[in-house]
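Running this now, will post back.
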Amino acid sequence: MRATTTEAGGRTKRARQPLTLFGAIGLTLLTINVLVAVFGSFVAPNTPGALVGGGGFAPAHDAALLGNDYLGRDLLSRRLHGAKFSLGVAAAATALGFLIGMAVGFSAAEIRGRYDTAVTWIIDVLLSFPPILLALLVIAGLGSSLPVLIGTIDFIQSSRVARVSRSVAMGIGQAMMEHTVYDKGGQLVTASFMDYAMPRAHDLP
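Update: finished.
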């Protein structure tokens, strides 16, 4: 049962739930990733393109704690330097995907008609493709530059957000159709739109 507290005026406020073990683990991992992305380039032992001893695919040694890549570069340094780009691309693509998806989903729920049908059809087509396959097709045709990567992730993410946003907006619209009316005796009655608009059996001639 969810704990609630009562405020002044009779309003109820949901009490804050304590952080669970899995929530604490996730928060810790997220904090570590953010710290590595922000400060990783400052503590990296080598530059991303520096060649260290041992040759290609060398195991871990003093100059490369995680070993070398196929060219003999330090894997640890490359990971630390590249973390900020990975986190930046993920954050930018997710933000743009949510913004575009919510705009498309909310507009489809509001406009309805042919626009809603077309948007729903396009979303269904995009969702029918596996995300990784669709991303590989886009990157193979347009290249792997940073704007293309962000745009590809944004494109894939926005279709899923649009579907959820449309469903949420449709539900909110259904709830907002409930309105307050007064019956003949002046009593306050809350009825749904269908109950108010459709005639009842005893009201028919």
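Residues 180 and 190 are 5 Å apart (CA to CA). More later if anyone needs it.
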